[in-house]
User: Fold this.
Amino acid sequence: MADDRLWAALSEVRDPEMPVNLVDLGVIYGIREADGVVEVDLTFTAMGCPASDFILGDVRERLMSEAGVREVRINIVWNPPWTAARMTEAGRDALESWGLAV
Amino acid sequence: MPTAAEFDQTIKSGELIESPKEMTPEYLRELKHTLIVSGDTELISAPAYYLAAKRAPSINAFMTGIAIIQDELAHAHIAYHILEELGEDQEKLIFSRDPKSFRYPYAFDVPLDTWTELVVANGMYDQAGFCLLGDIHDKCSYGPWKRGLNKVMLEENFHLRNGRTWMKRISAAGGAAKDELQRAVDWMFPLSVEWFGLPDSMKMHSTQLEYRLKGLTNDQLRQWWLSTVVPYCEEIGVKVPAHKETREGKDVWELDYPFPCEFDAESKRWDFKKPSSWEDVLVRWRARGPRNAEMVALFQEEFHKFRKAHHTES
Assistant:
């Protein structure tokens, strides 16, 4: 399974609070797949993020809907920490269009 | 200040009003009234949600609950801040008004007692807020408010998400958890339907619509709310007393109970066999509900204690 397809899948998952997808927000650090088991390295924009439960649920649900995926394992990673510099240009534009300073 | 005719023309042209200098006194009065209802509703949701958020089933759920309360306080602040720019005293509005003079929906005058009731409030009350504010965001003739609502709409989405996700989760759990959810919905669904006020048939004239402070009538807003809440509840297996009909090719949402009707606030039960009149409802709204003073005291009391203590020291 091409990892590109899995990255594309997660770029369809929107942050529950902000109008930006998780890939453009820069919180997905890595995706590996072997034998239908997908492992995702993921961080949050802050510790104690009130939306973390939703994000984990959404990532799992979206990846499970990809053909050939039978298990999703999520590693929550705090190092390196997330900063605004991890956002893509598209992510920055999306937030600015909503009047959020980035 | 513009003449009445000039102002009328501005409103009709679809232009935005940007400052008090561009308003007539009548518009200013109506704008302030609309902002007070909005600010009071956001503000009172904070203590109401807080009392229930304390019963969150996990640390993460509690954090989400608290984040929502923080949002609501920030939304209230937007409304009061604009009121201040229009010549009102924010501190007096929040801390020195009599509880009975606060203008928020009756639903917040009855307590939210459980986490289940809190998530139903996020799913239903915040959806009501989303419809009302979404309409203002879309149509409001007062520019500073229209723009201030950008952030608000975004955050209301998150509250809805919390409500819907948890309602679905609790419904799927079945058993006593689902029974509790159904009881909460039975109680809170009609409270939310009331939120949108008098039916259009009884409200002959709306100054808010005339001034483009909002764009949709009470019944249109109520229909919008029903069109989102009823299908979602049906999807997750929760019963609601309303259904869809198709009339002249259009979907219309009909209530399966007399509207308005009576309820018992203590047992949190509606009595669909006892219709009431809108006159009775207006009397009830004006008298406020069982927890009005307590909810307002939750944010007013400490403010005054603190002030008094500091005054004595100095």
Q: What stands out?
A: Residues 25-96+109-199+207-242+288-313 of chain B form a domain with the Ferritin fold (CATH 1.20.1260.10). Chain B has one domain: 25-96+109-199+207-242+288-313.
